[in-house]
Amino acid sequence: MSTYLESDKGKFIPATKRPDGTWRKARRVKDGYVPQEEVPLYESKGKQFVAQRQTGVPPGMCPLVAAELKKAHEKKERAKVQKVERQTTGTAATTTATSTTTTAAKATTAAPSIAKNKNDRDISALSSTLDDALKLTDADEVDIAKQIKKLRKKIREIEQIESKMQAGDVNKLDKDQLDKVKKKPEILKQLRKLEETPLT
Known about the structure:
This protein is mostly helical.
């Protein structure tokens, strides 16, 4: 820590000796000068707030009220611990007497519980397979309905081509349209077959 000397010219830091044996000159300083090593460290507002919070009191709360609440909380905690200790010591004697009977009871009930778990697994597996089967039938119904719709559309197209043929526009028809007309009985057969299939 530096010591200041005062003279009629003002304050000054006296000359000091360096480690290598040379001397530093005396320095004049202004009033209010604080050497670098004596300047207090800067603390941000956040650091100051944290330092204030370490007192354990929420901001704005009276320290006396906080101390009373802390004592009441500690008293409740001690009461809980004592209650638990009494319960554990009281039940320790009864548990040793009943432990032998419970192990025997567990041994007899273990076999039915295993069987019950197996039955539960079987039931869940069966229900999942039934769900899958139902999903398949729903998909089949949709597929059948789509096929019926497609076949009916083909028949409408064939009937349009036939009406053109009856009107005498045979020259305007191409080979694919004529092949379609020839397939009409086959398409009608497929349509009847699909319509007769029972939907589940």
